[in-house]
Design goal:
By secondary structure, the chain is α+β, with helices and mostly antiparallel strands. Helix content is 36%, strand content 15%.
Length: 490
């Protein structure tokens, strides 16, 4: 079936993996104009319309959903189906982009873009974020979780049960799942537990767990919003015994469907390597013993985390997590690195900013705070959210240059500080009298990274502010100012 036939406003055409067409008829939204319950208001406010319960469209989606639930299908209740409409300019642009990429992939793959339907489960809030902003979360799993690469994991239409397991129950006791159109193109097999995050070669587009009978489609983050188009939200109720009723889903695969952690992920050996710089040998031996018990399946992951918190202390762990976050941000923000020829390279891009809002330093914001934001004056950083990076940024040129070694990271071009200047050792000498040893160790580590040109002067200052706190630093600055004034008067 050609993707041109799939006009969301005019018709539906659902094709499951065996290419059996189960619907190709005019859409009938039935009682979509009727009053919608408050529990579904979050979907209608996100630009969706409820599909009438008696409509043919609702019936065929219900049939497809229930058949994919296996033994749990008889106890599954479809409460509502909401349809995504291309009703505003942004959504129309997303749909047109999806069609253009379908045509491009079809041209590359000999006329077949391999467009499939697939499920994506999550919390009600997450699904609404996807509908409004697009996909933005695509991270590696935690150490004891498995996954098929680092990407958006979609569930083929005939395996609804897998998607239902990854959906979260809301305050009304309902689960919600997205039914999406996915451009697979030419897929390659991705091994269980792989950390792959992009195609292995130019000939392939996406990943699958099995080439013959896939249960996972893996869409890489670079194309997640151009190759996935959300069509419907299905709200449903399942029995509490669902994990026991559904068969054929290994535990390792179920764990791959869990939501990724919000804190930055690192391997446990990497965490131990950092902690070894701050903890005495006895505590490190205790942590290693706990990790060995976890690897031997004698303790669970939550128990391991709890023990590490008890041994290392939350204050040190929070400092380590913040440090890792800053390192991740520094790597992402680094504009260029020196290559083997001593040259640096920068991309000059066209960026669609639209209306911009101010984002505070250290913010965890990952999407617009509202639909309408104000323009600001004289920005030095543009932040393009991950959900729109590939639709709002177009690389135009690569500029190759050589920077003078006397200006590492360009910090010397910044205006001089207005606060009284002091050397970093002098500042640490003062702070050592006011901060606990753990924080001082973090400050020393930050300074060593700065001396090794791993972070800029601005990044060092930001880290010092986060570790010491602005209130303490302001007090130190005022104290130095008073001393300078006293010396001047003497």
């Amino acid at each position: 079936m050609s993707t041109d036939q799939f006009e969301f406003e005019d018709q539906i055409s659902i094709t499951i993996d065996n290419d059996e067409e189960i619907l190709d008829s005019g859409s009938d939204c039935g009682d979509s104009n009727a009053a919608v319950s408050d529990r579904f208001g979050v979907f209608t406010r996100s630009g969706m319309i409820r599909v009438g319960d008696e409509s043919f469209e609702h019936e065929i989606i219900k049939k497809s959903f229930v058949s994919g639930m296996g033994l749990a299908g008889r106890d599954t209740n479809i409460v509502a189906v909401h349809k995504n409409l291309s009703s505003d300019p942004t959504r129309k642009a997303r749909f047109e982009s999806f069609k253009i990429f379908s045509q491009a992939v079809a041209s590359k793959c000999g006329g077949n873009a391999n467009v499939k339907y697939a499920w994506y489960g999550g919390s009600k809030e997450e699904l609404c974020d996807v509908l409004v902003h697009g996909f933005s979360r695509c991270r590696e799993p935690a150490p004891n979780e498995v996954s098929y690469g680092v990407g958006v994991h979609m569930i083929p239409a005939k395996f609804t049960c897998d998607g239902a397991l990854s959906s979260a129950v809301d305050e009304s006791g309902l689960k919600h799942i997205l039914l999406c159109r996915v451009i697979l193109g030419k897929a390659e097999m991705v091994a269980l537990g792989s950390k792959q995050s992009q195609p292995s070669c130019k000939e392939v587009d996406t990943g699958v767990d099995n080439l013959v009978n896939p249960r996972r489609y893996v869409v890489w983050s670079a194309i997640m919003n151009s190759h996935i188009y959300p069509c419907y939200v299905v709200s449903f109720k399942v029995p509490n015994t669902l994990p026991n009723v559904v068969s054929g889903v290994p535990t390792a695969q179920q764990s791959a469907l869990r939501q990724p952690p919000t804190s930055p992920w690192m391997s446990f050996p990497a965490l131990m390597s950092i902690l070894s710089k701050f903890l005495p040998p006895q505590k490190m031996q205790s942590i290693v013993a706990c990790h060995n018990e976890f690897r031997a399946n004698k303790v669970t992951r939550p128990q391991l985390i709890q023990r590490v918190r008890q041994i290392a202390g939350d204050r040190l762990l929070i400092g380590v997590i913040k440090s890792v976050k800053r390192q991740i941000g520094a790597r992402a923000a680094l504009s260029s690195v020196v290559d083997g020829s001593g040259l640096k390279h920068n991309l000059l891009c066209r960026v669609i900013l639209g209306k911009a809002e101010m984002v505070s330093p250290g913010s965890k914001q990952s999407q617009p705070s509202c639909k309408e934001v104000d323009n600001l004056v004289n920005p030095r950083r543009y932040v393009v959210w991950s959900a729109i990076v590939n639709s709002h940024i177009y690389p135009c040129y690569v500029i190759t240059f050589k920077a003078p070694s006397t200006l590492p990271n360009g910090y010397a071009l910044r205006p001089p500080p207005t606060s009284p200047w002091m050397t970093f050792p002098a500042l640490m000498s003062i702070l050592s009298k006011l901060l606990p040893p753990q924080k001082m160790q973090l400050l020393v580590a930050c300074h060593n990274e700065f001396r090794a040109n791993k972070v800029t002067c601005a990044q060092l200052i930001q880290r010092v502010r986060q570790i010491a706190g602005d209130r303490l630093l302001i007090g130190v600055i005022k104290s130095v100012k008073r001393q300078i004034g006293a010396w001047a008067d003497a």
